[in-house]
Cell division ATP-binding protein FtsE
Amino acid sequence: MTVIELPYPGRSATAAIPWHTRDEVHLQLAGVSKVYPGQQVAALQAVDLTIRRGEIFGIIGRSGAGKSTLIRTLNRLERPTGGRVVVDGTDIGTLDEDQLVAYRRRTGMIFQHFNLLSAKTVRQNIELPLRVAGVEAGERRQRVDRLLALVGLEARQDAYPAQLSGGQKQRVGIARALVHDPALLLCDEATSALDPETTRAILDLLRRINREMGITIVLITHEMEVIHDLCHRVAVIERGQIIEQGPVWAVYGNPQQPTTRSLLTPGHDRLPARFSEALSAAPETPESALLVRLRYHGDGVTPDLNRVLAAFDGRVTLVESALEPIQGRSVGHLLLTVTPAGGVPLPRSDEIADRVEVLGYVTAA
Ligand SMILES: Nc1ncnc2c1ncn2[C@@H]1O[C@H](COP(=O)(O)OP(=O)(O)OP(=O)(O)O)[C@@H](O)[C@H]1O
């Protein structure tokens, strides 16, 4: 793959300190509520959220939870009926028309269905916002050239949307969203219409844009892979309320709410059938084994098999391992049987895992 120079070298100097760790507030929602006209139930209820400059912040929730309404308050496509959306210290509810136009130019948005103009070519689609803004032709050409290179579509610049794949269409959408050098990129289910491989390529592009250009990205999705693979922090929304939020590794590793568990870690607690069917509360035979799950939240203890074996006195069989690195931390679990079950002294959690769970007894195979 060719390395492409980024369009705005002034901002792209690869910073030694990643933006998202600098703890600079970019966006703040304070008590944001939204009741649509004629509706009884609020689409958003007193949402408080702080998003840092340069982070990739994901909002996940089921259909109808309020994700679209929430993201649309960030560029005032939706006006809250209560509360404030503050961007770089300014309440965007107070912007006049001209200020709002200027703010929206610095806030790119991409959509699930791309929203391209079918009668215009790739180049013309990307160029259009610059024409509307009155940018002169030479400058327009230069900016579009750089963006075509960034998204890898130079060879398709004269194609029409109908001639493009879904992934290529979204690349056009991304290039168009970046024409005004935005500080903020909003992604509304940007990969939901794409196959898994194309999704990965688009997520790679978004990650690169975030990392190298320092753009804050806020995305909404119902796909846990998007949160897992791309985001630094996540908020879970249900019935218009944020029910849980935090760094992705922490929310994945130790989800607090049932909705979060089912959205982010489906199958998380499922035991292999041969164990769930054989599980009992007491040992049935002298050969019964204790079934133990060691959970790793990424909070501190790292999975160290030598320590695990030593802690259980060596009578351990590994049944299943579902551990993965998220943001440099180990998150997941190890499922073990320990024999003989009777009289096994359980090690302290903080010695071998973030949590030790005794699930019951199974008869050793
Ligand atoms: N323009 C509207 N007028 C009236 N009610 C609306 C409007 N837009 C959304 N709603 C309602 O507000 C609630 C939240 O909708 P929203 O579209 O924000 O949820 P969502 O999480 O984005 O859902 P989905 O994933 O299905 O798009 C829903 O009950 C929805 O029916």
User: Anything to note?
Assistant: Confidence is low (pLDDT under 50) at residues 1-15. The two ends are 50 Å apart (CA to CA). The first strand starts at residue 25 and ends at 34.
